[in-house]
Design goal:
Oligomer: single chain
Helix content: 55-70%
Largest sheet: none
Number of domains: 1
Number of helices: 7
Shape: globular
Structural class: mainly alpha
Radius of gyration: 18 Å
Order of helices and strands: HHHHHHH
Distance between the termini: 42 Å
Strand content: under 5%
Number of strands: 0
Length: 233
Amino acid sequence: MRSLSLSRSGADPAIARALPFVLFLALLMLGSKLAPDGGAHDMSMPAGWVVAARGVLVALALAWFWPRYLELAAPRGVAMRSWLEGALIGIGLFPLWVYFSQDWAVFGARSGFSPLLADGRLSWPVALVRLAGIALVVPVMEELFWRSLVLRWIEDRDFQHVSPRQVGAKSFIIVTVLFALEHDHWVGGALAGAAYNWLYMRSGNLWVPILAHVLTNATLGLWVLYSHQWQFW
């Protein structure tokens, strides 16, 4: 059996793309265990700090494996049309995510994450760390896992040799469904998953769906901070 090294230069390509995602899920479950209702409204609660630190820890994991992400080399040859499509779709998904927040489109009720202190004041350092994690870290982590790894791995176990433009309908549908099931807002997740799949397959470059994902999460995060609709966090 081939041995798997976890050094930054020798890690198995699949592990390098999966491990940050697995770490994210583990921290997500830890936060849920510490706050059984799914929320963390008081930053004095351990769950609140787990949520706030999640993005930092995943960012460190991504940084460790960064040399292995050959698809994230400086983007070249991507048409301006692809960047514009990514930007428009990314921003356009934000109102759809908010709109499809009815009970039937969400898995259960959750209070989300609120960076409020016990006295009701907003903890801006925690809020900004949370926003940076959602807007910058999560898009890279999820696109590496769902699009670069899973979408292509379904086509061929030697996924690094699969061009995004070669991905078929089966892989598209499976990843869309799984991406939807990963999110509480499953309808929004399905729409986003399908859109990011399409952008990756159409452009052939992972940075395009990352751009869209960043804009979706950033606009949603800024709106949450403005409106205090913490259930979306």
